[in-house]
């Protein structure tokens, strides 16, 4: 029953937002009593915390699986982008905005874990790119990995990039191209151009 509650809550949160959905909505959707839900979770915030944690772990697992496919580092970055869009959609949509606004401590906790995980993945990606001659030898891996995190999180800022003017997925793609064009070698640029061209078809 606990897993069913989480699954239902996750679907409702992703569709309608973390603030909009109440315990009554979850109970009604499942055709159970609120008392049943409260027997597993103390409050709605507890459900939100587990749902967000599960989603984070799911995305991390998916990224780990992509890493095992032996794509070249440039292809890998674009495969990860597809995975993230599939799992969390356009992160500038209301569920994530509501999480930031109404559950800031949950959002901050996930952001810290996201940084630690992304730092590890991006450093590995950059080092493989260097070994394969796809990224410039003189890049500062620690700097580039951190500026990448700043960029990926920064494009979600609604004040800097108003949703009515900037589509989330397009922003993500534009940022990836901006990031990669600054560090690729001529060999890497050829692969990057092929990927961008194929994505436009």
TrEMBL record:
PROSITE patterns: HTH_TETR_2. Keywords: DNA-binding, Transcription, Transcription regulation. One of its GO terms (molecular function) is DNA binding. InterPro entries: Homeodomain-like_sf, HTH-type_TetR-like_transc_reg, HTH_TetR, Tet_transcr_reg_TetR-rel_C_sf. Residues 1-59 form the HTH tetR-type domain. Pfam families: TetR_N. This is TetR family transcriptional regulator.
């Amino acid at each position: 029953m606990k897993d069913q509650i989480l699954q239902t809550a996750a679907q409702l949160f992703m569709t309608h937002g973390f603030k909009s959905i109440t315990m009554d909505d979850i109970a009604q959707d499942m055709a159970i009593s609120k008392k049943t839900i409260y027997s597993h979770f103390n409050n709605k915030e507890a459900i939100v915390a587990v749902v967000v944690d599960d989603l984070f772990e799911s995305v991390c697992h998916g990224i780990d699986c992509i890493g095992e496919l032996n794509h070249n580092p440039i292809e890998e970055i674009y495969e990860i982008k597809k995975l993230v869009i599939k799992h969390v959609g356009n992160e500038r949509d209301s569920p994530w905005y509501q999480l930031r606004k109404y559950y800031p401590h949950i959002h901050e906790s996930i952001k810290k874990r996201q940084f630690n995980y992304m730092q590890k993945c991006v450093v590995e990606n950059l080092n493989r790119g260097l070994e394969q001659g796809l990224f410039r030898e003189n890049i500062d891996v620690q700097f580039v990995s951190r500026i990448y995190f700043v960029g990926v999180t920064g494009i979600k800022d609604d004040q800097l990039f108003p949703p009515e003017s900037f589509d989330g997925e397009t922003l993500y793609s534009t940022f990836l191209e901006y990031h990669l064009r600054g560090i690729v070698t001529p060999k890497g640029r050829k692969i990057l151009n092929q990927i961008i061209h194929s994505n436009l078809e």
